[in-house]
Design brief:
By secondary structure, the chain is an all-alpha fold. The protein is 72% helix and 1% strand. It contains 24 helices and two strands. The protein is globular. It starts with 23 loop residues before the first helix and ends in a 14-residue tail after the last helix.
């Protein structure tokens, strides 16, 4: 997920609110109400346009239902607002990163960085190997950076552009990008969630990573196999004429391999543990400088001038950073690829995150998150039941709390004692938290991860959900291992004397 600077406070220090007055059925009322309202809003009213604003208001309505339940159970309105404020405060870093991703996409477009990636990518990645290559490329970048968010914002955007030019489904491509990105994020020692899960469960980082490989490697292997099969059978009848597109790219911008220096520098910065916000800002500024050097006519045109001077250069770069911009082209297949929304293009996603945090904050304040987790724990008494309860809690919190940190922290705190009482080593819990909490957050449209990834890649969650094979298969893999007691490590009892 996003790296260490996203949360101003440590996730493991998150306070879990409990409310003895609230029973499980009352805790579920806001969840049922939210799901029902979202279902109607998406499937009967607005369809694909639901994220334009109506879903955001539905989240506010869900929070209102939760608030009514809370007031009935003696929770003050001020207490709810305080928790909402804390939730929104916790997303400050994510919102700034989203804005900076929009800015970076703008300068990387007008500088020719993204078009150049598309230009060379079209010559290397043919439809047969493209999807599998997306998984591998994104996995490598994500392991190196520890951030699925950074992977999507850099190579992910370029791969989506290449897919569009090749005529490959953007939903499939986004699914491949996210499968690889979350595989890398999940096992990278640089990832914050990879550090958070063992901290919650009571094990160490590298024991956790080694133990995760038992479920993660089979899942990513099956994912790769599926994408290879899809690639071998993909319908390329309507694929765009690559030679025509290559010529159109060359006529629209100055193509140069030197432009790859900018994204490589950004990746190096992140590998060196530079905070992503700073790395993205540097990448944005370098993109602006590259635009002035390699694409002076385009910058001047966007800045309202006929030739490049200080004013037109300044306005051109600033417009690319902040508002909708486009590189002129006569090729229909490139029109969407040669446009970017800048920082303003991210405002819809930010709006969704803020509304989701309102719902999650009220749910936490009234004690609903704690009540749901405890109820799930009581439902199961077997070892498999304990694993199933943990998975269900992580999934439920990704939906209700809209934040993958809480989907790790709350079950981690709630189930640590239960795993110990069952004689199970803590790495069983930490692995389950990652398999079901970290990777599924991107499958929920109003979760911070789902909102971010769909906003950055320009592909709705509904379009990529089915193809994010690694993400939705991971919880099933961990349950399969639990059911057949495969690599379920027991606590070792120290010998006496």
């Amino acid at each position: 997920m996003q790296s260490q600077d996203i949360k101003p406070r440590e996730p493991q220090d998150e306070h879990i609110v409990e409310n003895a007055e609230l029973n499980i059925w009352e805790a579920l009322i806001p969840v049922f109400a939210l799901v029902a309202m979202l279902f109607y809003n998406v499937f009967f009213a607005f369809g694909d346009d639901a994220l334009s604003g109506s879903n955001q208001f539905i989240l506010i309505m869900g929070a209102a239902v939760a608030a009514v339940v809370g007031i009935y159970n003696k929770v003050s309105f001020n207490q709810m607002m305080e928790e909402v404020a804390e939730n929104i405060k916790s997303t400050a870093g994510a919102i700034l990163i989203l804005l900076m991703v929009g800015a970076l996409a703008g300068t990387w477009l007008i500088s020719g960085i993204i078009p150049t990636m598309i230009y060379y990518g079209l010559q290397v990645l043919n439809p047969t190997i493209f999807l599998a290559s997306c998984v591998i490329i994104c996995a490598i970048i994500s392991v190196a950076t520890g951030s699925s968010w950074t992977t999507s914002a850099t190579v992910g955007i370029a791969l989506i552009g290449i897919a569009d030019a090749l005529g490959i489904s953007l939903g499939m491509t986004a699914g491949a990008v996210l499968s690889g990105a979350y595989f890398g994020d999940k096992i990278s020692p640089l990832s914050d969630t990879t550090n958070l899960a063992p901290a919650m469960a009571g094990t160490d980082l590298f024991t956790h990573i080694r133990y995760m490989l038992y479920t993660t490697v089979p899942t990513i292997s099956v994912t790769l196999l599926i994408f290879i099969i899809i690639g071998l059978n993909i319908d390329t009848a309507g694929t765009a004429d690559t030679s025509e597109i290559l010529a159109a790219v060359e006529s629209a911008i100055t193509v140069s391999p030197w432009l790859f220096v900018v994204p490589l520098l950004v990746i190096v910065l992140i590998v060196k543990k530079t905070p992503p916000l700073i790395a993205l800002l540097i990448g944005t500024l370098l993109g602006g400088i590259a635009a002035l050097i390699f694409q002076p006519d385009i910058v001047a045109s966007i800045g309202g001038g006929t030739s490049l001077d200080f004013t037109s250069g300044y306005k051109g770069v600033m417009n690319a950073i902040t508002v909708d911009t486009a590189i002129p082209t006569e090729n229909a297949a490139l029109k969407d690829l040669f446009s970017a929304g800048g920082m303003s293009g991210m405002l819809g996603t930010i709006w969704l995150i803020l509304c989701a945090m309102v719902f999650g904050g009220v749910m936490d304040a009234i004690g609903a998150l704690s009540a749901i987790s405890k109820a799930l724990l009581k439902l199961f008494h077997t070892t498999f039941g304990l694993f199933a309860s943990t998975v269900a809690s992580c999934l439920a919190l990704n939906v209700t709390a809209s934040d993958q940190y809480l989907a790790i922290v709350v079950p981690g705190k709630m189930y640590a004692k239960a795993f110990k009482e069952k004689g199970l080593a803590p790495e069983n819990l930490s692995r389950t938290l990652e398999d079901s909490g970290t990777v599924t957050s991107v499958l929920v449209p109003w979760n911070t991860c789902g909102a971010y990834q769909s906003g950055v890649l320009g592909v709705s969650v509904a379009d990529y959900f089915v193809y994010a094979f690694f993400n939705w298969m991971s919880p099933f893999t961990t349950l399969l291992f639990a059911a057949f007691r495969i690599k379920i490590r027991q606590l070792t009892v120290p010998k006496k004397g």
